[in-house]
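Dear support,

Our group has been running a series of protein-ligand predictions, and this particular one with 2-amino-3-ketobutyric acid is the one our PI (initials K.S.) wants archived with full inputs and outputs. We had some confusion internally about which version of the output was final, so please treat the block below as the authoritative record. The input we submitted was:
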Amino acid sequence: MRKKIILITGANGEIGHGLINSLYAKGMDNILALDLHPISSSIKDKILEGLIGNILDKNLLEQINSEYEVSTIYHLAALLSTRAEFSPQMAHEVNVTGTLNLLSLAVDQAKSIGGRVKFFFPSSIAVYGIGKSKGSLGPISETEYCHPQTMYGCNKLYCENLGIYHANYYHRLADDFKSGHLDFRSIRFPGIISAVTIPTGGTSDFLPEMIHAAAQGQKYDCFVRKDTRMPFMVMPDAIQAIIDLMAADKFQLSQHVYNIGAFNPSAGEFADKVREHYPEAEIHNAINGKRQSIVDSWPAQIDDEKARTDWSWSPKFDLDSAFKNYLIPKITQQYER
Ligand code: AKB
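Confirmed final output from the archive:
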């Protein structure tokens, strides 16, 4: 008998931490957590098993396929946008080939179980590429401006399409083809701010870095201009969105990939908010032109109407309540410790 599990790749990452905590709180601890590094001590008691390994290792995936019955895959492993620009080939390998490997595993599982496997893929606003007119545009919907300007954005957009293909058309000429064996669901995340973890290798890292630096009494050089605006949300809302989308009835969903957003302060407005709570905060600007150009290619605001209508997406936190009820209390508590 194969063990029934939920597979989470990139389990040690920011979203992995939040998701494992949340699934555990809901009684779902039959998790096989895969990561390049040993599973972090803060989550290792909340999973069934931890596996150290690479999503590019086909033998490892074959082993998972033969030893476990996988009902759901949360495929979180990825190289983020800034990191990917430094190593585009490697990013393509991890972000695209890695995702293809996981999609194949999901299809194999669905065939052997004779049922549906759910697959969650975190996409990103990096799939958008807009020109100089960013400030004058209204909210951008899922179908507009899909012309990414980064390797990471290209990878995410293509993998969304790979997921849709595997869900609806993969092996369509084969006798055992069944559309719907793979239930592929994806969210295009904005920047995410966690009070507990600090991201690495992303281009939206400037807001999380700014508040974590202030909380630790450290000076921060923000790598984008003060007037730089893009959508953000806090981690609890990001995790809740994953849980809600994955729990939604399939017939409610009119598409596979959804935008979601919560607030979109400029870097300067966010710095002012940080100073309200940490009056000593030393925040300066040391613009990195290349990272600036990446954020400039991302929308200032996105249209998440489809998520609101189809599966009742509604963020719990706006900018003020995010500071008051989540970021400040949690971050302060963390660094006091
Ligand atoms: C990044 O900055 O690369 C990510 C993203 C916006 O997807 N946080």
